[in-house]
Design a protein that fits this description.
The structure holds 2 protein chains of 2 kinds. By secondary structure, chain A is an alpha/beta fold. Helices cover 30% and strands 18% of the residues of chain A. Chain A folds into 2 domains: 314 residues, Alpha-Beta Barrel (TIM Barrel), CATH 3.20.20.70; 125 residues, Alpha-Beta Plaits. The longest helix of chain A has 16 residues. The chains are: A alpha/beta, B alpha/beta. The structure holds flavin-adenine dinucleotide (FAD), flavin mononucleotide (FMN) and iron/sulfur cluster (3 copies).
């Protein structure tokens, strides 16, 4: 079996799966239970200034029948006494010396930072995570994302911490900023040992259309909260990549955001994460998901012949390029595998209305046909097709040519004027506008129902 | 041992005749509606004789717009609730669902349809309103799916509508014919009451139109007359012994069953004659009433039965046994039926041939003849100029429903020779438009 253990900036853990600082790490009871179940580490629910929470704290985004594809909260940091938390950290560490226990911290003054860092170290924390990310409640008090959004403040506070820190320090970044690499660089300048990202994204998760108030509702009103869960993974992956590729960041990264299964974790790792943190999935399904996470990761590593996590940390990074570096000679064309097609015609309507009118319908069959000359290879049809591998995007160039936008610009062959002959869509076929009128009214508005309700053939009313 | 014990209470009856398509709850409807792919030019719509915009109403259910879903359904089909429960969806919408081609269970369209419409009915949502009074009157004969649908559509077009019905309840065979495990009387009648309350046509029950004088009066008082008379009693077999006690027609047996439930008596050993859907129903129903032995006897081979495969499966599932290639010769017994004398047959070149010397007798204490319904020829002959085709079906324009007597329009079983509720309701909606076009000339 592959070796899942990690040494993350000096913090050792039996596997890269850590619980993120959040409700699942609110108490020693929960963290022990998680370690018992197989989690590799836990970032304790943020310790710091005293807070009071409101009742009604979470909101969810459902997609059709799927619950919590997105999740948000208006909760603050730990509202339990610091002493209780520290005592429990100590107890957990005694019981699980080889698991990673990281204290997440958020306070205000330099003195407070010094005190809480020392106290956490004394309690036995293997590392510290500085919470510069919380986008609600704490930022109004000049903490959380208010710090994360100000690289200079972030640097200063991190430096305060480094003055007394004896264990590795991770700076947790907020995504509520236009360039995440700026706070990441500030963390490095301050001497931090690692960064973690992302914290939650400022959000309104939905509006109660009967009460006219945003979710979650507190006595008829609500506020913006922090967004997380499966829906945020794409945003997290992009920010992760930005930090991992930046020449002036060069710090180990703990990837967070939308991780629910081993695949999500592998994606984070391939883009540069060397540990991953999970919150929403554990809140939704409990600690038991760790079994699937580790088993999936192990199978993947066996499959690929990876012995340790480090064999593939950042392995996809060289293939994430700027748009101008992509090969413009590469061409794919949609191909429908007729024997698999079930005739839903979603590809047809998607391409017809949402892409390039490159799919047509033929009389006597429900299987659509690709008009290859019109297909630009956008992928849309293959994305909407409900049948696995029914529409494949097949390579149609001969693979011998390579030309990028950058090269074209340098060679002076890039289009520059509005109606430039060299522009992309210039010779691409589009139907005449008026050809749209009435084209498929009889089908879209809805077939025979229209006949029955008297809109065609039937005697008019 | 019989599969079912004889029900003696309403509760036991309901258990034996448990609904095949029970009502969905909101969660189930949410999950099922979420599976729909919302196909373009969806094949399920094309397969629905009433052309309901299925992906539209499923999408409405999924987004929590159940009332909008009911509106979509009723816009195409006034028997939207009943159809969701009684339609042979396996060969209609659900049979056409693209999931079948993936070997995945098709969307439960029927149950979703009943879900949305039941909710509208229970919450008494206002979905219909009569059109502005146009001063014209139409008489409708028969309060079955055809007659009621025609009445609804005409009311929405502003006509005054009076329905004349021979029986004591509306919905025709929906309440007197369809198997009780498909729909309950309460469900059927709730939809009828809902429609009538919002659209306001009058129905006169226990009022058969049976004489030339009555018709002449209608002709004088109304601008047009719609015939939604359906079919008649079970065809005679023309066999000796047919008049014995406990030899009954399937339609008559089922009508009694629907009205009297567990109070009806079924034999211990029942022979059902026929191979159509009604035969399957009668056989299933006998078994569910506690008959120990139910034999379905059919003149031809199993594959040649007119019944849908799933209906035969349903009958087999409750213990009905098939006996194929046998033709009845005589119903035997004194006053009461004691058996049926059969002769074996073989089919050659599409023709059934009796095999000489192969006669045998099968004992039983009840015979149910499911040998088709007769046309209402006597009644039709009272209408001057009304033509019927070679099979006794009323001849009428395919779209407008106008018969060869221009004042008369017809739809449903009487015109199509016997189909489903959905056909009757869809055709009658068109006929109402035909009447409107005719009277607007
Ligand atoms: C046993 C059986 C089971 C069936 N099961 C199903 C099923 O599961 N699903 C399905 O979709 N369809 C089923 N059908 C078919 C379906 O019931 C019919 O197709 C449908 O009811 C036809 O509607 P209709 O309005 O044309 O006729 P009917 O439903 O027959 O209605 C005609 C009405 O007119 C009245 N009437 C007739 N003559 C006169 C007169 N002279 N004066 C006054 N009133 C008159 C009758 O009393 C009756 O109420 C079944 C039919 C039978 C016989
Ligand atoms: C209810 C809730 C409370 C959270 N509290 C904290 C916190 O105290 N400190 C912190 O650094 N992050 C906090 N987070 C953010 C999570 O640690 C994590 O960064 C975010 O949820 C993204 O990961 P996910 O997509 O796996 O949920 C919280 C998240 C949630 C849902
Ligand atoms: S890839 Fe894009 S352009 Fe080509 S057929 Fe599919 S949807 Fe149309
Ligand atoms: S989306 Fe896929 S299954 Fe549907 S019609 Fe197109 S190719 Fe066939
Ligand atoms: S065919 Fe099936 S999946 Fe497609 S719209 Fe109809 S019910 Fe939905």
């Amino acid at each position: 079996m592959p070796d899942l253990s990690i040494d993350f900036a000096g913090i050792k853990a039996p596997n890269p799966f850590w619980l993120a600082s959040a409700p699942p790490t609110n108490s020693g009871y929960q963290v022990m239970k998680a370690f018992d179940a197989g989690w590799g580490g836990a970032v304790w629910k943020t310790l710091g200034v005293p807070v009071v929470n409101v009742s009604s704290r979470y909101g969810g985004v459902n997609y059709r029948d799927k619950r919590l594809v997105g999740f948000n909260n208006i909760e603050l940091i730990s509202d339990r006494p610091l002493a209780d938390n520290l005592r429990e950290i100590e107890e957990v560490k005694k019981r699980f010396p080889n698991h990673a226990v990281i204290a997440s911290l958020m306070v205000q003054s330099r003195q407070e930072w010094h005190d809480i860092v020392r106290a956490s170290q004394d309690a036995g924390a293997d590392g510290l995570e500085l919470n510069f990310g919380c986008p609600h409640g704490m930022c109004e008090r000049g903490m959380g994302s208010a710090v994360g959004q100000e690289p200079r403040v972030l640097q200063m506070i991190t430096e305060w911490v480094m003055e007394v820190a004896k264990v590795p320090v991770i700076v947790k970044l907020t995504p509520n900023i236009s360039d995440i690499t700026e706070p990441a660089q500030a963390a490095r300048r301050a001497g931090a040992d690692a960064i973690s990202l992302i914290n939650t994204i400022q959000s309104i998760v939905g509006v109660d259309i009967d009460q006219f108030a945003p979710y979650p509702i507190v006595d008829g009103q609500g506020t913006n909260g922090g967004y997380c869960g499966p829906a945020v993974k794409p945003i997290a992956l992009n920010m992760l990549k930005n930090c991992a590729q930046h020449p002036d960041v060069r710090l180990p990264i703990s990837g967070i955001g939308g991780i629910e299964n081993w695949r999500d974790a592998v994606e984070h790792i391939l883009l540069g994460a060397s540990s991953v943190q999970i919150c929403t999935a554990a809140m939704h399904f409990g600690f038991g998901i760790i079994r699937e996470l580790t088993s999936g990761l192990e199978e993947y590593m066996l499959d690929k012949g990876f012995n340790t996590i480090y064999d593939f940390v950042g392995k996809a990074l060289p293939n994430v390029r700027h748009w101008e570096d992509l090969n413009m000679k590469y061409k794919v064309t949609a191909h429908i595998h007729e024997e698999k097609c079930i005739g839903c015609q979603l590809c047809y309507t998607a391409c017809e209305d949402g892409a390039h009118q490159a799919i047509k319908l033929n009389a006597g069959t429900r299987v659509p046909e690709i008009i290859e000359e019109n297909c630009v290879g956008c992928n849309l049809c293959s994305l909407v097709c409900p049948v696995e591998e029914c529409i494949t995007m097949d390579r149609t160039d001969d693979g011998t040519q390579h030309l990028t936008w950058k090269q074209r610009t340098e060679a002076g062959t890039a289009p520059t004027e509005f109606n430039d002959e060299k522009a992309g869509g210039r010779h691409h076929w589009v139907p005449e506008p008026a050809a749209a009128l009435g084209k498929e009214r009889h089908k879209t508005l809805p077939g025979r129902a229209r006949v029955i309700s008297g809109e065609t053939e039937v005697p008019a009313v | 041992m019989a599969e079912f014990s004889t029900p003696t209470t309403e509760h036991e009856f309901a258990e034996n005749f448990a609904q095949l398509k029970p009502l969905m709850n909101r969660t189930e409807a949410l999950y099922e509606s979420a599976r729909c792919l919302f196909c373009f030019d969806a094949p399920c719509i094309q397969a629905c004789p009433s052309g309901i915009d299925i992906p539209q109403f499923i999408r409405q259910i999924n987004s929590g717009n159940d009332t909008g879903a009911a509106r979509t359904i009723y816009a195409a089909n006034y028997f939207g609730n009943a159809c969701g429960k009684v339609c042979p969806t396996e060969v209609l919408c659900e049979g056409a669902c693209v999931y079948n081609l993936q070997e995945v269970k098709p969307i439960e369209i029927g149950r979703l349809q009943s879900y949305a419409t039941t909710k509208a009915i229970q919450e008494n949502k206002k979905l219909f309103a009569p059109g502005a009074d146009n001063g014209r009157r139409v008489a409708i004969i028969g309060a079955g799916p055809a007659g009621i649908s025609c009445a609804c559509e005409l009311r929405s077009l502003g006509y005054e509508v009076d329905v004349f019905e021979a029986q004591a309840q509306p919905s025709g065979l929906t309440v007197y014919g369809v198997a009780p495990y498909k729909i309950t009387n309460e469900e059927t009648l709730a939809e009828m009451a809902y429609l009538q309350a919002q659209l306001g046509y009058s129905v006169q029950y226990n009022s058969p139109i049976s004489s030339r004088e009555q018709l002449a009066e209608l002709e004088a008082q109304y601008d047009a007359i719609f015939l939604g008379i359906g079919l008649g009693e079970t065809n005679e077999l023309g066999l000796p012994g047919e008049d014995k006690i406990n030899c009954t027609g399937a339609v008559e047996f089922i009508a009694e069953l629907r009205q009297r439930h567990h109070e009806i008596k079924v034999g211990r050993r029942v022979i059902v004659l026929g191979g159509g859907n009604t035969a399957m129903d009668a056989a299933s129903e006998s078994a569910r009433l506690g008959a120990e032995d139910v034999v379905l006897a059919y003149r031809r081979g199993k594959e040649e039965m007119g019944a849908y495969e799933f209906e035969y499966d349903l009958a087999k599932g409750v213990g009905v046994k098939g006996l194929f290639n046998v033709a009845p010769l005589e119903i035997v017994g004194e006053d009461y039926v004691t058996g049926v004398r059969f002769i074996r047959t073989e089919t050659a070149g599409g023709r059934v041939r009796e095999i000489a010397g192969s006669e045998f007798e099968l004992p039983c204490d009840m015979v149910i003849k499911a040998t088709g319904q007769a046309k209402r020829a006597g009644f039709m002959s009272l209408i001057p100029g009304l033509e019927t085709d070679g099979k006794g079906r009323i001849v009428a324009d395919a779209v407008t429903g106008q018969t060869t007597n221009p004042k008369y329009f017809a739809s449903g079983d009487a015109r199509n020779g016997g189909a489903e509720v959905v056909n009757a309701t869809a055709e009658a909606k068109l006929a109402a438009r035909g009447i409107h076009a005719f009277l607007s000339k």
